[in-house]
Design goal:
alpha+beta
């Protein structure tokens, strides 16, 4: 998630990277807006988004206002 990153997609979203791949996913519904990562990693990411959707939306609101988002437990 990047600060004030709502100009291109105009939707709440996150950026996820795996090795050299990047995917941009709308939150909270999980729709892929751009890019791709391996299917197995996408399944894990989708589950993580579902578990943390309220936190992600709250952080998105902070980030687009230029405020620091809260840390969310990463995938392990």
């Amino acid at each position: 998630m990047y600060y004030k990153d709502n100009n291109k997609h105009h939707k709440a979203h996150i950026h996820a990277m795996y090795q050299d791949d990047e995917v941009i996913i709308e939150i909270p519904n999980g729709e892929i807006l751009e890019g791709q990562i391996p299917k197995s990693k996408m399944k894990l990411l989708t589950a993580w988004i579902e578990l943390h959707q309220d936190e992600l939306v709250a952080d998105w609101k902070l980030a687009v206002q230029g405020q620091k988002p809260y840390k969310i437990e990463p995938l392990r």
